Amino acid sequence: MRVTYEDLDQQIAAAQQQLAAVRERVRGRTRQPSAWGEALEDLTKALANLRQLAQELRARTEELAQRETALRDSEARARAIVDAAVDGIITIDECGIIRSLNPAAEWLFGYAATEIVGRDINILMPSPWRDEHDDFLTSYLAGGERRVIGIGREVIGQRKDGTTFPADLAVSEVQLHGHRLFTGTVRDLTRRKRAERRLAAQYAVTRVLAESTTLGEAIPKMLQCVCEGVGWDLGEFWRVDAEANLLRWDGMWDASATGGTEFEAISRGMTFSPGEGLPGHVWAANRPAWVGDVLAGPGFVRTAAAAKRGLRGTLAFPVRTGSAVIGVMGFFSCEVRSPDHDLLQMLDALGNQIGDFVARKRAEEALRESDRRFALFMENLPGVAFMKDTQGRYVYVNEPFENTFHRRGWVGKTDDEFWSPPIANQFKQNDHVVLTTRKALQTIEVVPHDEGLHSWLVSKFPILNESGEPMMVGGVAVDITEREQAEGKLRELQRLEHQRERLADIGAITAQIVHDLGNPLAGVSMQAQLIVRRAQRDESQPVSTILKPMERIVAEVYRLDALIKEFMDFSREQRLDLKSMDLQRFLHSVVDLWEPLASARGIELTLEISDGLPTITADEEKLHRAFENLVKNAVEAIDQGPGRIRLHAAAVGSEQVRISVEDTGPGIPQELEVFRLFETTKPHGSGLGLPIVRQIVLAHGGGIGFARLEPHGTVFSIELLRHGPAPEANDRLARRRRGFS
Amino acid sequence: MLDDDEGFRNALAENLRDDGYHVIEYATVREVPPLTALGEVTVVVTDYDMPGTNGLTFADTFHAVYPNVPIIMVTGVCTKSLETQAAARGFVSLLRKPIQYDQLHDLLYQTSSLGC
After folding, report:
1. What span, in angstroms and rounded, lies between the C-alpha atoms of A510 and B7?
2. CA distance A602 to chain B (A)
């Protein structure tokens, strides 16, 4: 029979009451203390003590029960914690034998607790740790150093299937019933490691992007970083060719390939249209895509080559700048891979980063290319080029600039620091004109260098900012000193040539003159002898007999006189007395002079002046002789009317006038070179008339030509410069300026 | 008489006519009729430099028909070459313009049959 504390307490209490009743009876019989009385008192006290003890015992027992319950609760709680722990918890004894492991550890290592409790812990470790572990434990238990306990370290765990994983291990030691137990907490680091690797890959890509100067250099490095970071075997980049609307292969990285694989060779020549193949699909959808096994599914274009290379899993993601896809990156793994959301997310973010880089690099490369072209262009200019800011500081000078002026370090400095005040001021004034007018200026600047003053033909222009404010003055210039000298030499040469020609002409004239003058003189002489002889023969003979020879003498003398004058005209230097003259009035005077003779021969002489005929600068007297010759030729060509001579004058452009003399005469024979000396169709022509006209026109810086008219007739055209001939020492600058404007 | 300078030719012809000669004037060789139709010729006076055929060529042609008729050639420009060519022929006397009528007249007498 089970006795409870209550039963015991009740029985003791009942015993106390019975004893108390016995004591009352005894006390009533006798007032005298007795041996019984004492014994009863002792018994009463003993019972009270007993009861107290029983109560104490009860309290103790209850306390113990409570403590046991609390302990049980605590253990359950601990168990629950251990069982529910994410980390694997494994307990081993001093011999390294597994005593317990929680579900997380079961899951982590792929063993059920039942199949592993009682086995050596080293089964959970790969070599070489597996073989070393027992020794570690032994040496530790023998008082050796701590390797793990209380420290924690990263280790490699081995699963039941033989695969390994990185883990964080913390070990604590407990003493229990004189035994030492070790509890290990194992945390799987795979995810953390992967995240770390991916982060590192991202950093690496970022670093590649930052360090690469060109796209071509960055792409394979990026591919490598990503591959190594995420543990894939091959990466490729496809560039969007917007113009062709195609994806073009733009680089590959292959972890294993030492040389080019067939896969690379095939890829290199490929293009993808939007939606075509995995890259085309990613491009068109603007979304990452994952193919667990390229060999399993359709839609992969390079299956055969991929299989040969051993590629299975692949993923691709768009490389974007903003929302525009500028390329597609693809990665391949030699294993079949199941989609990894985190990885895709990371690569998608990376795609944006790379895209921005690619866009930036392209812009930079375009700019560099543009800069390079600009520099190339500038360095090869046949002259100097420069830019200055609005403060006159050089911003740019090309190499020829530095070489020409034999100075370096122009940038940041002003003309004042290089040139004497008059030279610098000249530059600054022109710069100022360009900046204030905001228009290009062509001018000549004089620059002292190479032991002489050089003339530079310079074109300065304003460089305006977007709002049209001048930011800089740009300039290109060529040294025209030599050209000017050459031009001067050429002019001198031409002058000498002209002089030589003239001397030759005069020589020819001298020869001709002997003949031309000799004949008339012989005639005059003979006429005179006739007169003399007739007079001597008969002094009284009538005048009529000598009148005819005398008239002939007079005519001959006139002819001689005219001939000599023409000769004089031709041989004389054509020194011009240039004055502003009214061409209209002048031509009227020519016409007025010849009108009587012309009309006497039945020739109509007219003058037409077109509107806007300017005054010209010329030697009027010389021009008069020229036109007189032309009109005289025309009159003599027609000889007898009816016929017509028409003078016409008109402005040609703003700088020239043209005057033509047109006749309806028989025309000039084809073989006749009219401007050649002594060429004439007239019986007594000297052949000097037109050469003289030509000489006068050329001296005026003009030109002369003629044309045969249909059915017959001739027109001579003379063009004269409005401002007269350029004097020998003419202001060449002024002439150039005219030429530019 | 051949000379394209009308003033000279005419004055010389007039001088000769005054002395009683019968003179026929031609400006160029082209104007001269066929030599066989010329009839009797005592002396020829010709210019050297004329348009068309020159005086020396004419002299040769003429001499072939009239081997005994002397030819007096007048010229404005007398070159060494011309002198040599005239002298080589023997039947050509060269006179240089301007000429003295008397000198020509003397030459006529010396060379032609007139002086006989």
Report:
1. 22
2. 28
| Residue pLDDT, tens place only, A51-63 | 888 888 888 888 8
Instruction: Tell the CATH topology of B6-115.
Output: Rossmann fold (3.40.50)
User: What pLDDT digit, counting tens, does each position of A503-530 carry?
Assistant: 777 777 676 666 667 777 888 888 888 8
Q: Which amino acid is at A613?
A: L
* Nearest residue to A645 via CA among A663, A633, A632: A663
Q: Which residues contact A496 (CB under 8 A, 6 or more apart)?
A: none
pLDDT at A730 over 70: no
What gap in Å lies between CA A402 and CA A684, rounded to an integer?
A: 70
Instruction: Please identify, among A343, A363, A383, the residue that sits at the C-terminal boundary of a domain.
Output: A363
- Give the closest of B10, B15, B49 to A529, CB-based: B15
Nearest CA in chain A to B5: A519
ipTM: 0.87
Are B14 and A522 within 8 A, CB to CB? no
pTM: 0.39
Q: Rounded mean pLDDT of A400-413? A: 90
Contact B55, B43 (CB under 8 A): no
B51–chain A Cβ distance below 8 A for any pair: no
Give start and end residues of each alpha helix (H) in A572-681: 583-600, 620-638
CATH number for the domain spanning A355: value is: 3.30.450.40
For residues A129 and A178, the answer to whether their CB atoms sit within 8 Å is: no
Distance CA A408, CA A400 (A): 11
- Give the per-residue pLDDT at A9: 79
Count of C-beta atoms within a 10 Å radius of residue A331 = 24
